[in-house]
Amino acid sequence: MAKVELKQPVVQAIVNDIEGAQSIVLVDYRGLTVAEDTALRKQLREAGVVYKVCKNTMMKRAFEGTDFAQLDEYLDGPNAIAISKDDATAPARILAKFAKDAKALELKAGVVEGQKYDAAALAELAKIPSREELLSRLLGSMQSPITNLARVLNQIAEKGGAAECTPATEEAPAEAAAETPATEE
């Protein structure tokens, strides 16, 4: 078998992974310990992010004709790619957070929804919360006024209910006193 025939399945596997991807982040993983690498892979897997260490030539071939070809200039030295099809900011967010503790991990560049970002821009992009978190914040802000209105109405009902009970008990003895003189006469 020729070398090209052996490499074709590897390139095809990368193409399959990047097909329909919203984002790809390229990192230099040199210097990570096995424990750090295992922890990183676990975090990425839990977020639905594919993380692979691939040869640069294989990635270049896989990126040809896609938005991810913008990363070709960063493909030097050992690289790993993190690919997300669901959450566009997940790879950048997880890798940037992990890089704070593991100084050996270096963000190189990424393409998020067709736009190329360098390492500094990826760090800023990583500050954006996940879609689920943004939706929960939106829902919370929408529910807050309704919840506050319900509390106010409940307090008014409790105070109003207590006020109605108090006059009713005061009127009852007055009626009883009015009835008592009528029976005496």
Automatic annotation (TrEMBL):
Record keyword Cytoplasm present: no
InterPro entries listed in its UniProt record: Ribosomal_uL10, Ribosomal_uL10-like_sf, Ribosomal_uL10_bac, Ribosomal_uL10_bac_type, Ribosomal_uL10_CS_bac
Gene (name only): rplJ
Gene3D superfamilies associated with the record: 3.30.70.1730, 6.10.250.290
Protein name: Large ribosomal subunit protein uL10
Family annotation (CDD domains): Ribosomal_L10
Assembly mode: Part of the ribosomal stalk of the 50S ribosomal subunit. The N-terminus interacts with L11 and the large rRNA to form the base of the stalk. The C-terminus forms an elongated spine to which L12 dimers bind in a sequential fashion forming a multimeric L10(L12)X complex.
Family note: Belongs to the universal ribosomal protein uL10 family.
Superkingdom of source: Bacteria
Entry's Gene Ontology cellular component terms: ribosome
Keywords from the named record: Ribonucleoprotein, Ribosomal protein, RNA-binding, rRNA-binding
Region of interest: Disordered: 163-185
The keyword rRNA-binding is assigned to this record: yes
Entry function: Forms part of the ribosomal stalk, playing a central role in the interaction of the ribosome with GTP-bound translation factors.
Pfam families referenced in this protein's UniProt entry, alphabetically: Ribosomal_L10 (PF00466)
